[in-house]
Write a structure and sequence with these properties.
It contains 5 helices and 13 strands. By secondary structure, the protein is α+β, with helices and mostly antiparallel strands. The strands form 4 sheets. It has a 4-stranded antiparallel sheet. The protein has a 4-stranded mixed sheet with strand order 5-13-12-7. The radius of gyration is 31 Å and the shape is elongated. Bound molecules: 2-acetamido-2-deoxy-beta-D-glucopyranose (5 copies). It is found in: Cell membrane; Membrane. Keywords: Cell membrane, Disulfide bond, Glycoprotein, Ion transport, Membrane, Potassium, Potassium transport, Signal-anchor, Sodium, Sodium transport, Sodium/potassium transport, Transmembrane, Transmembrane helix, Transport.
C-alpha cells in the first residue's frame, strides 16, 4: 500500500495533471528558465567572439608575435630510417638501398636547378639577405635565394643516381631546422657542419667512440657550410618559396659490416652548443651500417 502511494507521488512529481506541472514547474516557468539560459549563452558566445576578434586584430600574419629566445636550432638527416635515425643496407641487396636513393630523389626534387631558377633569385653570397619591413610598410612577399641541387656535386644524385649507396660510399644530407629570424653566424663567418664519431655508452661508466671506423668524409658544399645568404628566414607566409640550404656528407671509406655511430654538429660562432637534454639541438646522431656480405 505504502509502496503504491510512493509511486503515485513520484509519478505526480514528473507530471501533475491537476496543476499541469512538469517536474514541479509550470510551462511558463520552464519557458522563462529556457529563455534565461538562451540569452545567457548568447551573451557568453558574443563575449568570446569579441575577445577572439580583438586578439586576432593584434596578430601579424607574417611573423609570430611570441617566439622563444633564439636558442639552438635542431638538425635532421635525410634519408632517415622509418623508426630510428639509422641507415642500414646491404650493397648486394638493391632493394635495401634503393629506398634510400628514392627518398633522396624525392627530397631533392624541389632543389633541381630548373625549379630553383624559376622560383628563386641568385643572391650575393657570404652575406645576410635582409628584407626588413619599413615600419608599417610590409616588404612582402619576400624573395628567397637559389640553392641549386648541383651544389651538392657527388651527392646531388645527378652524376651518380644512387648517391654512392651501391658502392658503399653513401651520402647523407643534413638540414638545419627553420628558425624565423635566426642569424647563424657573426662577423661574416658562416656556420658549418662537422661530423665525427659519437660517444656512446656501452656499460656502466664505459664509453666508446667509433673514431677509427668512420674513415674520410667529403662535404658538399666545400667545408660543409650553410651560406649566410639563406638567412634570415622570415617565415612560411612571408617567404613562400624559401629553400633551406643543405649540406651533404659522403662517407668515402667507412668500415663495413659493423655499426658506426656518427654525430654531426653545427659549428658557429654565435649558436650556443645545444643542451644535452635536447638531443637534436645543434646536433644529430645516427647509425650507419653497410653490410657487404652476400645474402
Ligand atoms: C628533378 O630532376 C630530376 C632529373 O634530374 C627529375 O627526374 C625530377 O623529376 C625533377 N624533379 C622536379 C620536382 O622537377
Ligand atoms: C642555378 O642553376 C641555374 C640553371 O643551371 C643557373 O641559371 C643559376 O645561376 C644557378 N644559381 C646559382 C645560385 O648558382
Ligand atoms: C615563387 O615561385 C613562383 C614560381 O613557382 C614564382 O612565380 C613566384 O614569383 C615566387 N614568389 C616569390 C615571392 O619568390
Ligand atoms: C674551407 O676552410 C678552409 C680552412 O678553414 C679555408 O681555407 C677554405 O678557404 C675554405 N673553403 C671554402 C670553399 O670556403
Ligand atoms: C680506409 O680505411 C682503412 C681502415 O678502416 C684503412 O686501412 C685504409 O687505408 C683506408 N683507405 C683510404 C684510401 O683511406
Amino acid at each position: 500500500m505504502a509502496k503504491d502511494a510512493e509511486k503515485g507521488t513520484w509519478k505526480e512529481f514528473i507530471w501533475n495533471p491537476r496543476t499541469r506541472e512538469l517536474l514541479g514547474r509550470t510551462a511558463s516557468s520552464w519557458g522563462l528558465i529556457l529563455l534565461f539560459y538562451l540569452v545567457f549563452y548568447i551573451f557568453l558566445a558574443g563575449m568570446f567572439a569579441l575577445t577572439m576578434y580583438v586578439m586576432l586584430q593584434t596578430l601579424d600574419d607574417h611573423k609570430p608575435t611570441w617566439q622563444d629566445r633564439l636558442a639552438t636550432p635542431g638538425m635532421m638527416i635525410r634519408p632517415k630510417g622509418v623508426e630510428a635515425l639509422e641507415i642500414i643496407y646491404n650493397t648486394h641487396d638493391t632493394e635495401s638501398w634503393d629506398l634510400y636513393a628514392q627518398a633522396l630523389d624525392k627530397f631533392l626534387g624541389p632543389y633541381n636547378n630548373s625549379v630553383q631558377s624559376q622560383k628563386n633569385d641568385v643572391c650575393d653570397p657570404d652575406q645576410y639577405n635582409f628584407q626588413n619591413d619599413m615600419d608599417e610598410v610590409k616588404n612582402n612577399p619576400k624573395r628567397s635565394c637559389q640553392f641549386n641541387r648541383t651544389v651538392l656535386e657527388d651527392c646531388s644524385g645527378i652524376q651518380d643516381r644512387y648517391y654512392g649507396y651501391q658502392e658503399g660510399t653513401p651520402c647523407i644530407i643534413i638540414k638545419l631546422n627553420r628558425v624565423i629570424g635566426l642569424l647563424p653566424g657573426k662577423d661574416g663567418m658562416a656556420p658549418s657542419v662537422k661530423c665525427g664519431a659519437k660517444r656512446y655508452k656501452i656499460g656502466k661508466d664505459e664509453w666508446r667512440e667509433d673514431n677509427d671506423k668512420i674513415g674520410e668524409m667529403q662535404y658538399f658544399p666545400p667545408n660543409g657550410t650553410f651560406n649566410l645568404m639563406y638567412y634570415p628566414y622570415y617565415g612560411k607566409k612571408a617567404q613562400v618559396n624559401y629553400s633551406q640550404p643543405l649540406v651533404a656528407i659522403k662517407f668515402l671509406n667507412i668500415t663495413t659490416n659493423e655499426d658506426v655511430n656518427i654525430e654531426c654538429k653545427i659549428i658557429s660562432n654565435n649558436i650556443p652548443v645545444g643542451s644535452i637534454r635536447d638531443k637534436f639541438a645543434g646536433r644529430v646522431s645516427f647509425k650507419l651500417r653497410i653490410n657487404t656480405v652476400t645474402v
